[in-house]
Each structure stands twice: as C-alpha cells, then as structure tokens.
Amino acid sequence: MSDTGTNDVGAERAKSAADPAGFAPRERFAAGAQYIDGGLRAGTSDRDHAVVDPATGEEIHTYRLASTADVDAAVASARAAFPGWAGATPGERSDALHRFAAVLGDRAEEFAQAESLQCGKPLKLSREFDVPGSVDNAAFFAGAARHLAGQSAGEYSGDHTSYVRREPIGVVGSIAPWNYPLQMAAWKVLPAVAAGNTIVLKPAELTPFTSLLFAEAATEAGIPDGVLNIVTGAGRDAGEHLVGHPDVAMTSFTGSTAVGKRVAEIATATVKRLHLELGGKAPFVVFDDADLEAAVHGAVAGALINTGQDCTAATRAYVQRPLYDAFVAGVADLMATVRVGDPFDPDTDLGPLISHAHRDRVAGFVDRARGHARVVTGGEAPKSPGAYYLPTLIADAAQDSEIVQSEIFGPVLVVLPFDSDDEGVRLANDTPYGLAASAWTRDVFRANRATRDIQAGCVWINDHIPILSEMPHGGYKASGYGKDMSAYSFEEYTQIKHVMYDNTAVAKKDWHRTVFGDR
Ligand code: NAD
After folding, report:
1. Helix or strand holding residue 282 (H, E)
2. 3-class state of residue 99 by DSSP
3. Please, where are the H alpha helices in 373-462?
C-alpha cells in the first residue's frame, strides 16, 4: 500500500537512542544467531534472514537461519542436559532461577533496547512492561520451583500407601511469536525449566535478539549448558522439525490459530503433550452504568498497547445504547492525542507495526471495511519509511463482518452498540476466539453475570490488559488450551505419577482370586 497520511513520522532515529547501553545486534551476534549447548553459533541452513527495524525500514542485522540439523543439535543438547537438570533438587533449580532473575534485572536496559529495536515498540513499554514483567516471571518461578507438590499421600485401599509424584516431561520444544519476544521466551522457558525440563525454543524469525540474550543470561546465571537452547529458523522447516522431533516430549506453541492447527496435527502424530496459546479478538463490554471516562481511557489503552499487536488487546467495544455516542466521540478524541513516532523517543506512545507486510495486512482489513462501516478516525498510514499505521476507530460495522470477526493485530478498534445486557454478552461471545475480555460497570450483579457468562480465559472488570506472574494466562475456544504463568503452568510442564506400595507383605493377595484360584 502507499502512505496516504499527512502526518509525517520521522525516519531519523531519536537522539535518545544514543544511550551508552545501546544495543548493536551485528556486534552482539557476530558469532551467529543459534544458541546451542551454552553458546552462540551460526545456523547451517542455506538461507539468511534480514532483521529490519520497523521504525525506519533499515536492515539492522542479517543472520543464517537454523537448519533441521541445527534443531537436531539443539534437541540432542537438551536431551543430554535433562537427567542432570531433572535430578537437581528443587532448591538448586530455585537458586539458579533467582540468579537468572538477578542477571535479567542487571541487564534490563540492554533487553529493553533490543526489544524496542527489533519490534518497534516504544522504549517506555519495553522498559516498564516487557522487561520488568519478565524479571518478575523469573523471580516467581524461582519460588514456585520449590512448591512442585503432588497430592497428599494416604492408605486409600487400606492395604497400600499411595502418593503422587509430579515429574518433568523431558525435552520441551517451544515456538513463539514476534509480538512480545522476551515475555514469550519467559512464559515458555521459566515454568518448563523450573519443573526440571530442558527446552529448545524457536522464536519468530523477525525477532531473534531478546531470546538469544535471554539464553545468554541463563548461562551467565549458572544454568547448565543445554538446559535452554534457541534455534532461530523458519516455521515451515525448523519449526515443523522441532514439533515432529521424536526426542521432543512436549510442544508448547504461541502464535496464530491457523499455524496452531498445523502444529497440533504434527504433534498429535507423535503423541506429544501439547500446549497451544493462539489468537484472540477480545471484547470490551460497556454497560450503561459504567464510568464513561474510565471506559474511554481503558479502550484506547487496551486497543493500542503494543500497536494493537497483543493477543488480549481490546478489539471489539460493545457499548450499551445510552453511552454509545459519547463513547465513540471520547475514544476518537483520545486516539487523536496519541503520539505516533520513533520508539526510541521518550515522548512516543505508539510505534510502528512489526513489518511493512503486516502494516499492509492491517490496512487491507480497514480498506475492505470501508464499504459497509464508518472509519471514525485513523484508517491510514502516516508518511514514513517505517511501518506505521494511525490509531483507528471503526463504527457501524455488522457483527458478522470480517472486521468484527477476524484478528487484525493492529491499532484498530471496532465499536458496536447493544441494548439488553444479554445481547451485550451474546455479541461478546460471538467469535471463534476466547482469550480475554473485559466488562465495564459499577453494578456488582452485572459484573458477576459478565464474569460468569463471557467465554474467555480472562475477564477483567473495569480494566483491560494487566497480567500477573501469579495468575494464569490462556484461552478458551479457538484461542487454544493450556495456561502460561502461575502455578497452573506446572500442570502443563509436569506429568503425574501414581506410586503405590503394598503394605501387607503377603505373597498371596486377596485380589489374585479374580485371576486364578478360589478364596
Ligand atoms: P504465527 O502463527 O505466524 O507464528 C508463530 C510462530 O510459529 C513463529 O515462530 C513462526 O516462525 C512459527 N511457525 C510458522 N509456521 C509454522 C509451522 N508450519 N510449524 C511450526 N512453526 C511455525 O504468529 P505470529 O504472526 O508470529 O504472532 C501473532 C499471533 O500470535 C497472533 O495470532 C496472536 O494472537 C498470537 N499470540 C497469542 C498469544 C497467547 O498467549 N494466546 C500471545 C501472543 C501472540
């Protein structure tokens, strides 16, 4: 698409980027962009991948993608590390993760710069959300590692003692998307290794840097070589090879629902444990007693976080008729104040989308909606060499239209009116997805009904977006299954073993008569 807007967004990297902690990917990853067996090495496929700064369109690093042989080497390293790591005491794993959290904290600025550079996300978002969230995750799983409890033991038959062991599964193969590369690495790696598994993580090709830094930090913290390996390769070859690998016991995937279905097919053929965190299309339901100012602010923040490239972003606002016009006007006015610009400029609120191809995809959704819906604000790309798209509000779209039903993954909010409370909740549930949702009301009964009736893995009341290390994140319906973060993620990364001891020391047990002999 062509840039149609009139608001220029500067191509020049803001002066603030000249921070002494600045991150230089060509130097950092001169040795290669695969992290296998405790060190960086070059990929051995026959393809290079150019990482482009989405804010400027400039190439910032080119690396050799992983081959299937690189995946084999990473899996072999993880497999070799498994007995030692699984055999470490919970206290030893916990200590290592505490050190890991400390190293991540010490290197926070480097992580923030790397994340902003590769994703185009405002530095204030990387500094205040992505990086501290990941440090907190590491600290949480350091503590959780010592609380891997099975159920209580007991003499359930009268003649035996039973107890439950919660054990690691083996080598986990994880695949992550580009929207929050550091947090996705943290969500995938930390519960897995806290539980005693070893892991091979494949980040998205577009955004390899912070996953590689994460693995380096793990080594610096004393986590043994091979426990955490990174292969940066293409989905179709390195990704599918990892999912189908016979020595990988579990696949943990975060990404689109379309790719998740393909991953599920391959994983199922080899009977792997499967964890799927997929797409979202979060509803934002505003009842007529809501605090309008809070709802307007919540909608703009919830829709535009990470330039809308957030699986839980507010994408469909359903507003009860009495507040509808004021909500539309309030959101449009507030969106117009959002400062679109260089991610490294401290004044920037909204950075570019991840790539020009993705920007064009987002623009395509909006352009196709123009015939049957009203673009209240935005709906265009500003003049810029970067992959920018303006905050966009769309009204008057039909519930069954593409713009309401499909995941756009950009700074686009659709707003629709509703009349009865039941209709609001019914419309909120009317997409294939069910990752997250919010309801806005001052009425405790309405809030309670909304939390009960909305089909999503997370329902916020009078807020939208916050996440916590202690609380589970994961979907309903086509948004997948399995939970990230929280003690619940241990369910995903452990297997349960029933151990049963005979207490009678009798050779001829009473139950044998059901197989031979008489009482
Ligand atoms: P994507 O599905 O295109 O890619 C995700 C990952 O899968 C990448 O690493 C990619 O290389 C890999 N991949 C692609 N094809 C593959 C294949 N055939 N086999 C194995 N791996 C393959 O998603 P994306 O565009 O990177 O990320 C955006 C999507 O991620 C959105 O749908 C978003 O909602 C979703 N997401 C979900 C969550 C969640 O927690 N539910 C979190 C973040 C992002």
Report:
1. strand 282-286
2. helix
3. 402-405, 421-428, 444-453
* Residue bearing the bigger pLDDT, 311 or 9: 311
Alpha carbon distance 117, 111 (integer Å): 10
**Do 227 and 57 contact (CB within 8 A), yes or no?**
no
Strands (E), 57-194: 59-64, 160-168, 171-175
Q: Which fold, 282-461?
A: Aldehyde Dehydrogenase; Chain A, domain 2 (3.40.309)
Decide if 31-278+484-496 and 282-461 have a common fold: no
Residue with tokens 């073993």: 497
What distance in angstroms lies between residue 263's CA and the mean position of ligand 1's atoms? Answer: 10
Please state, for a pLDDT cut of 90, what percent of the chain lies above it. 93
Show me where the domains of the chain are located: 31-278+484-496, 282-461
SS (H, E, C) 41-91: ECCCCCCEEEEECCCCCCEEEEEECCCHHHHHHHHHHHHHHHHHHHHCCHH
Tokens representing 339 are 């400062």
Q: How far apart are CA 173 and CA 233, in angstroms?
A: 13
Q: Are strands 437-440 and 282-286 parallel, antiparallel or unpaired?
A: parallel
Q: Is 252 helix (H, G, I), strand (E, B) or coil?
A: strand
The Cα 128–Cα 111 span in angstroms is: 12
Domain 31-278+484-496 fold is Aldehyde Dehydrogenase; Chain A, domain 1 (3.40.605)
Q: How far is the CA of 389 from the centre of ligand 1 (A)?
A: 21
Q: What pLDDT band is residue 9 in, cutting at 50, 70 and 90?
A: confident
The DSSP output letter for 198 is E
Q: Taking 70 as the threshold, does the pLDDT of residue 495 lie above it? A: yes
pLDDT for the residue 11: 54
List the structure tokens of 147. 């609380």
Ligand 1 atom with the smallest distance to the CA of 260 is 2
Q: In angstroms, what is the span from residue 176 Cα to ligand 1's centroid?
A: 6
DSSP for 379-404, please give it.
Answer: -SPPSSSS-----EEEES--TTSHHH
pLDDT tens for 363-391 read 999 999 999 999 999 999 999 999 999 99
> Residue 157's CB: how many other CB atoms inside 10 A?
12
Report the percent of the chain where pLDDT is more than 70.
Answer: 96
How many other CB atoms are found less than 10 A from the CB of residue 83? 10
Q: Is 308 left (phi over 0), alpha (psi -120 to 50) or beta?
A: left
Report whether pLDDT(109) > 90.
yes
pLDDT tens digit sequence for 321-354 = 999 999 999 999 999 999 999 999 999 999 999 9
Q: Which residues line ligand 1 (CB under 6 A)?
A: 175-179, 202, 204-205, 235-236, 239-240, 243, 254-256, 259, 262-263, 277-280, 311, 407, 409, 435, 475, 479-480
Residue nearest to atom 10 of ligand 1 (CA): 235
